[in-house]
């Protein structure tokens, strides 16, 4: 077997082991990407993506994800998704199940529901407090 190398952003360290395990078992690169990103999306200590991600101006956690198969060049992406934690899985479903490359907002959420994905409140008390503090800093009460 050849050497296996998995590269990730700094917040991706929580999923590298999962991605490597998929590759060691003979799984595809797409399988490894998804497996490696799932723990990142569920990491409550990471406020940049997924569960516990920081909300937008309106206090809504909106998630985006994209994935591409390097062999076939097929791609799938989702944007502005609310209340679905694993948007990497949803992006993969777009790639594999739809004639589209990108779906967003309510359309992406409807597709997630149709794929049987579970909804989840992505805001934690910590991120809610951080968002409120940021709002007061940017828009100070009079």
Quick overview:
The protein has five helices and three strands. With 142 residues, the chain is of the alpha+beta class. Strand 2 (75-81), helix 3 and strand 3 form a beta-alpha-beta unit.
Give the topology, please:
Elements (H helix, E strand, L loop, with lengths): L12 H12 L4 H13 L21 E6 L6 E7 L5 H11 L4 E3 H10 L10 H14 L4
Parallel strand pairs: 2-3
Antiparallel strand pairs: 1-2
Structure description:
Helix content is 42%, strand content 11%. Helix 3 (87-97) links the parallel strand 2 and strand 3. It has helices at residues 13-24, 29-41, 87-97, 105-114, 125-138, and strands at residues 63-68, 75-81, 102-104. The chain has a three-stranded mixed β-sheet. It has five helices and three strands. It is globular and about 60 Å long. The chain is α+β, with helices and mostly antiparallel strands and 142 residues long. The chain has a domain at 1-41.
């Amino acid at each position: 077997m050849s050497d296996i190398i998995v590269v990730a952003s700094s917040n991706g360290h929580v999923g590298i082991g999962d991605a490597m395990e998929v590759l060691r078992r003979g799984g595809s690169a797409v399988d490894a990407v998804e497996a490696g990103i799932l723990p990142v999306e569920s990491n409550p200590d990471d406020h940049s993506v997924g569960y516990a991600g920081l909300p937008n101006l309106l206090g809504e956690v909106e998630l985006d994800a994209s994935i591409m198969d390097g062999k076939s060049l097929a791609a799938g992406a989702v944007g502005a998704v609310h209340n679905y934690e694993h948007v990497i899985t949803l992006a993969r479903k777009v790639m594999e199940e739809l004639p589209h490359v990108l779906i967003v907002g309510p359309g992406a959420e409807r597709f997630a529901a149709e794929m049987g994905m579970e909804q989840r409140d992505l805001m934690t008390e910590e991120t809610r407090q951080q968002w409120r503090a940021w709002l007061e800093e940017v828009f100070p009460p009079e």
